[in-house]
Amino acid sequence: MNAQDRKLLIKIIQYIDEIALTVNERAVTLETLFSDVTSKNAISMCIIQIGELVTHLSDDFKETHTEIIWKEIKAMRNVAAHHYGEFNMKTLWETVTDDMPVLKSFCTQQLSEITQQKDAI
To answer: How confident is the model over 89-120, as pLDDT tens digits?
Structure first.
């Protein structure tokens, strides 16, 4: 992993944490997401940012880690950015509750491995 990939993973984690903060502080549920425009906008903006960051990860990194659905992350960003009025709230909620924790765990693990490699040197 190069230094740029490392920085991007850190930023991705920060946006995932912002989503979790919004969900927790505003007690967001799938049902409230339909009417809570502020939470929907905050979460969607983070999704957009994560999708944009993913496009800047090196091809080598993405090709090495095919367990992550990079193209789908970018596709979700495109829907949030360009077809916001058509955004399916159930899909958004599933992304927040199911996919974001997996992505955060992956990013955290990658950063931990690079730290362990540095410590071993």
So the answer is: 899 999 999 999 999 999 999 999 876 655 55
For residue 28, give both structure tokens: 């967001």
In contact, 13 and 107? CB cutoff 8 Å: yes
How much is the pTM? 0.90
Of 42, 44, 65, 57, residue with least CA distance to 12 = 57
Q: What is the pLDDT of residues 7-55, one digit of tens each?
A: 999 999 999 999 999 999 999 999 998 899 999 999 999 999 999 999 9
Residue from 95, 79, 85, 93 nearest 31 by CA: 93
Domain ranges of the chain: 3-120
Cα 89 to Cα 56, 74, 84: the distances in Å are 27, 17, 10
Run of H or E including 21: helix 3-25
The structure tokens listed for 96 are: 């927040």
